Amino acid sequence: MAHINIKSDRIEYFDYTFQGTVSGYTSGGYNGVPTIFNIIDKFPFSADADAVDVGDLSVTRSNSAGQSSSVSGYSSGGSNNSIPATYNIIDKFPFSADANAADVGDLTQAIKFLSSQSSSVSGYTSGGTLSTPTITSNVIDKFPFSSDTNAIDVGDLTAAKYYNIGQSSSESGYSSGGNLNPGVSNVIDKFPFSADNSATNVGSLTVGRYGGAGQSSSVSGYSSGGFSPTYSNIIDKFPFASDGASTDVGDLTISRFVTGGQSSTEFGYASGGIDFFSDYNTIEKFSFSADENAADVGDLTAFRAGTAGQQI
């Protein structure tokens, strides 16, 4: 969706698909094994409210990646632990109407536990694990928003990792943290949207962790929650304008893992997730304009973790 920045002498328009002004979406997920969901939930950005179920993915799955164009939400990859199966499916659902998703293409490999990024014209996935055998990936895939087609391999992360956390600026995709199998990463990788290229190491999280939610303002990337060596509530922030380390700028209300991330123009959201004892349906929000803790602002329609996030 195009966003407007009013200056004293002109109006500038920005096409940030990694931010929305209307609604956030949470798709798929699991609540224990083998309970896997195909639910697409939607919640408003204009008010603090519970989500409503507005459609279904083409298959039940969790641990997929979520992307957003200006008109559609995408859910790519993921797994169904009850079969078991790992998917290469790229699903697409419309923002203009509450409707089910359709399978519109394939990633270059069947993969789960991957991160996601969105430019104004393309969706990206990075990292993850393959199902048989369990192999960790460093692949960066890209697929176009303008047509329904398969993804192509356009580069590599600096290391193979999974449960990595994705962010997007107007110019670059980011992949932060992740499980290195063995080891845990605190590295923030960056790759360009303007060319098909591999990522470079541009900074670090305050604590190495994986399975957190990624959010993006117009100037900063955020990593919230995650795991290592225990469940985390940390909200980290790093700048897009320069390559550097993150700072700890607040806390989620709950320490949790494999949480969906959404971004409006004003707030970052974290939805669902899991800890040692519980799956959560909590929707939290934190401000982009001030460094502060998150607040509980609503509930998903089901308690679940391993969800993908989208926004319009």
Give an overview in words.
Helices cover 0% and strands 47% of the residues. With 312 residues, it is mostly beta strands. The protein has one domain (24-311): Kelch-type beta propeller (Neuraminidase, 6 Propeller). The strands form eight sheets. Strands 5-4-3-28 form a four-stranded antiparallel sheet, with no helix packed on it. A four-stranded antiparallel sheet has the order 6-7-10-11, with no helix packed on it. Strands 12-13-14-15 form a four-stranded antiparallel sheet, with no helix packed on it. A hairpin with a 7-residue loop joins strand 18 (184-192) and strand 19 (200-204). The chain is globular, with a radius of gyration of 17 Å.
- Could you say what the CATH architecture is? 6 Propeller
> Which CATH top level class fits?
Mainly Beta
How many structurally independent domains?
Answer: 1
Shape: globular
Largest sheet: 4 strands, antiparallel
Low-confidence stretches: 4-14
How far apart lie the N and C ends? 6 Å
Structural class: mainly beta
CATH fold-level assignment: Neuraminidase
Approximately how much helix is present in the residues?
A: under 10%
Count the E strands: 28
Number of helices: 0
N to C succession of SSEs: EEEEEEEEEEEEEEEEEEEEEEEEEEEE
Annotated CATH homologous superfamily = Kelch-type beta propeller
Rg from Cα:
17 Å
Short key terms for the protein model shown above:
28 strands; 312 residues; mainly beta; Neuraminidase; 47% strand; four-stranded antiparallel beta sheet
